[in-house]
Amino acid sequence: MDARARQPVHTEQHAPSYYAATANRQLAFPPLTGNEQADVCIVGGGFTGLNTAIELAERGLSVVLLEARQIGWGASGRNGGQLIRGVGHDLEQFRPVIGDEGVKALKLMGLEAVEIVRERIARHAIPCDLTWGYCDLATKPRHVEDFQASYDDLKALDYRHELRLVPAEEMRSVVGSDRYLGGLIDMGSGHLHPLNLALGEASVAQSLGVRLFEQSPVTRIDHGSELRIHGERGTVRARTLVIACNAYINGLQPELAGKVLPAGSYIIATEPLDEALAHELLPQNMAVCDQRVALDYFRLSADRRLLFGGACHYSGRDPADIAAYMRPKMLKVFPQLADVRIDYQWGGMIGIGANRLPQIGRLPDQPNVYFAQAYSGHGLNATHLAGKLLAEAIAGRESRGLDLFARVPHLTFPGGPRLRSPLLALGMLWYRLKDFF
Fold first, then answer.
1. Span(s) in the chain for CATH 3.30.9.10
2. What's phi and psi for 241, nearest 5 deg?
């Protein structure tokens, strides 16, 4: 590891990531003090909270948004920046519960989610390095079979973007490595700078009249027909509450916290690469991802750094040295980077649900409290979908998504906060072992 690599530090400020170093705007919102009143209070200033706020404000509702640290501080400002179609994993498992039409609706929502991001960026001219082109990577023959099934399924849904199956002998046209047995290219997915997107969306929300407050953790919620949301130095009164904390919910709402497991994911960023080397690694400048449980995902930044991530951890403990941990994984894919410097290293928590389907709905015993969480690695697009579905339901015009998501049960992880992570880590070992067969 190069001595100049930025060490991960968890503070009230943004993680010392490549994204924070290249943020294209500096926003500062005040902490909550005194008393505020709104139609809706949102807790959480990531993609879920920001997009719910935008959708609600566009529908004429007054909104207060509370963020415990800074806008985009959590996974929204730290993730791999991969904008990939789909919502949930293995939707076929839900067919007995929601039927054929329900599964089809979820699949179509997974496509709609990316279009929401596309439209929001275009409509508000948000500069976030949006680049189209993505490829799933096969490391096993069964992955190639799965790609064919995905290709057929997307065609049956009349997917409007280019799809292309890539045989093993042509994989060098996508990624400069001999590690992969095939791929599925999707030109309707892509990659972007997630923190710049979050900051841009915060500006949009503010322009629509949303009142945003940073450094404003919620300490208590008084439930009732009118909710009182308490901070350290202020209070918000609202008819409706949206909890949008995901992996960082902690103990704010125990019945939600028990259904989402924080899991660590980590990224390193190289020094800027010369044009020839960058082209050798990713000739078509696509985002790519393999299909293993402990997956690798990587892409090029706008200034030609390789951003290489993965290594999902369920133990609750971050590696002591992220660059030392991730660099060998990068070199297995790209040994030609052995002498390349690592400039940034960082990690963060993503929210995992037991069945890998996002949890979007409202509390059964508190009908004016809504939530969205547990995106399981597909948060960039699914958060934007969640914001739209929540706003539709809160505004009272339709509840197509919430009704469907509510039909799928979600397991509460056993063992309480202390045992949840070790138990799931043990369970996930089985799935990792399956990667070898």
1. 136-190+262-350
2. -125, 140
- pLDDT score, position 243: 98
The Cβ of residue 409 has, within 10 Å, a number of other Cβ atoms equal to 10
Q: How confident is the model at residue 11 (pLDDT cuts 50, 70, 90)?
A: low
Ramachandran angles phi, psi of 263, nearest 5°: -130, 135
CA 136 to chain centre: 17
Rounded CA-CA distance 72/428 in Å is 28
Higher-confidence residue: 52 or 431?
52
CATH number of 136-190+262-350: 3.30.9.10
CA distance 291 to 138: 6
* Coil vs helix vs strand at 404: helix
State how far the Cα of 62 lies from the Cα of 64, in Å rounded to an integer.
Answer: 7
Comparing 43-52, 193-202, 393-402, the range with the smallest average pLDDT is 393-402
E strands, 57-174, where? 63-66, 82-83, 131-138, 163-167
**Tokens matching residue 46:** 């990531």
Which pTM does this prediction carry? 0.93
Residue 130: pLDDT above 90?
A: yes
One DSSP character per residue, 184-209 reads: EEEEEEEE--HHHHHHHHHHHHHHTT
